[in-house]
Design goal:
The protein is an alpha+beta fold and 106 residues long. It is 27% helix and 25% strand. The mean pLDDT is 88.
Length: 106
C-alpha cells in the first residue's frame, strides 16, 4: 500500500483532493467533475460501489486506474470492470506487469 504522504509527495503542486475510506461514504461529498480516480477495491462489490460513484462524474478523456485487475488473488476487480466498462465507451489498457487496468473514458 501507499501512504498518503507518499501520494502527496508524488502529486506535487497539482490540483487534486484525496478521499480516504469506504467508497460508499463519498456519495455526494465531491463535485461531480472528475478527471482521474485510482480505485483499489480488491473485491467485486467494493469495486462496483466505487464505479457507481465515479463513472457518472468522470469527464470524457478521464482516467481510471484499477489495482489488482490482473491478479489471481483478487478476481473480483476484473469481474467488476468487465461488468461495468463497455469497450465502446472506454479505452481499456491492461498492464500485466503492474496488474492494473487503465480505463480512459471516450
Amino acid at each position: 500500500s501507499t501512504s498518503r504522504s507518499e501520494v502527496e509527495k508524488n502529486m506535487g503542486d497539482t490540483n487534486y483532493k484525496i478521499y480516504e475510506g469506504l467508497f460508499e461514504s463519498f456519495i455526494g461529498k465531491f463535485a461531480c467533475k472528475l478527471s482521474f480516480a485510482h480505485i483499489d477495491g480488491d473485491l467485486c462489490q467494493s469495486t462496483l460501489d466505487a464505479l457507481a460513484i465515479v463513472i457518472p462524474c468522470l469527464v470524457p478523456g478521464g482516467l481510471l486506474i484499477f489495482d489488482d485487475f490482473a491478479t489471481i488473488d483478487w478476481p473480483g476487480v476484473k469481474r467488476a470492470t468487465e461488468e461495468s466498462l463497455d469497450s465502446s465507451k472506454w479505452d481499456l489498457i491492461p498492464s500485466f506487469l503492474t496488474q492494473q487496468l487503465f480505463a480512459i473514458r471516450k
